[in-house]
Amino acid sequence: MDLAIATTLPDTSFDEAVTRTREALLEQGFGVLTEIDVTATLKAKLGEEMERYLILGACNPPLAHAALGVDRQIGLLLPCNVVVREDTSREGSIIVEAMNPDLMVAVADAPGLPEVAAKAATKLRGAIDSLSNSVHS
């Protein structure tokens, strides 16, 4: 099982990738509840430098409600993390990765959860695929 549903956006600025990712998530019914600027946090707390790296905590309320209805401990795995980060191997490229919802099924083997995870995976794949399929100038 893959840890992430991912795409690489060549010739894209970091800020454009973040904006496009937020829009793609919104189109699939996800809102961004949290935002963690890992780069700024590591710089402030440890004095460490790293490429631009942002974690968006995305939530689709109907899917979160369904998952919590199956197993309340699923909240430990919510929201779905989506990472936008600079590709250190290719200048000018940005990697966008969403947590694979099948991980919830692997961790919490509860009846009804595979169906919810499959719906979440379809929506997250839709968001990620739309990023790699869209053309922005």
Q: How would you describe the overall organization of this protein?
A:
The protein has 137 residues and is α+β, with helices and mostly antiparallel strands. The protein is built from five helices and five strands, in the order E-H-E-H-E-H-E-E-H-H. The longest helix has 21 residues, at 113-133.
Number of strands: 5
Strand content: 15-25%
Point out poorly predicted stretches. Answer: none
Order of secondary-structure elements: EHEHEHEEHH
Dominant shape: globular
**Assembly type:** single chain
| Portion in helices | 40-55%
Summarize the structure.
This protein has 137 residues and is of the alpha+beta class. It is 44% helix and 24% strand.
Task: Produce the secondary structure layout.
Layout: E1 4-9, H1 14-27, E2 31-37, H2 38-46, E3 53-59, H3 61-70, E4 80-86, E5 94-99, H4 102-107, H5 113-133
Antiparallel strand pairs: 1-5, 2-3, 3-4, 4-5
Helix pairs in contact: 1-5, 3-5
Question: Which tags fit this structure?
Answer:
137 residues; alpha+beta; five-stranded antiparallel beta sheet; 5 strands; 24% strand
